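Open question from group meeting: does this chain pack into something compact, or does most of it stay loose? Before anyone orders reagents, we agreed to write out a predicted structure and look at it together. Recording both the input and the output here so the notebook holds the full record.
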Amino acid sequence: MIVLSATVVQIFCLIQGVVIVYDITNPDSFSHISKWIHDISANCADGNDKPVLMILGNKCDLDDERRIHTETASQAAQEFDTIFAEVSARTGRGIDEAFDELVDRMVRLHEQRDSFNFTDSSIMLRDHTISAEPHGCKC
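Structure tokens returned:
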């Protein structure tokens, strides 16, 4: 794990989305994905503040030189609960769709986080407040 300064950790935790890019023709670049995801998770103060992650396989225009199969990367993305896409920076293939998905997930996550405002004695769900009963639930 990388040890980061307090300032870097504070900035790190403000990040809303992270794109981890690997080269489909270079297995070494793919092997570092789990380390990056671990470092991101370890340096976020709270699991609720975890950014949206996307694993992005680049150079899909070089399919004849492919060393990382789509299925392998897709399975890794599922295991890490991240978005997965393959793109070509050279041709532009898949880039718009990948970033549209990333932004869509970031917006949905932001809306979910804003829907809940936790305080010591109540939970506010947008415009409705549910007070916590001091003597237990009255279900």
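Observations to bring back to the group:
Residues 6-131 form a domain with the Rossmann fold fold (CATH 3.40.50.300).
The first helix runs from residue 6 to 14.
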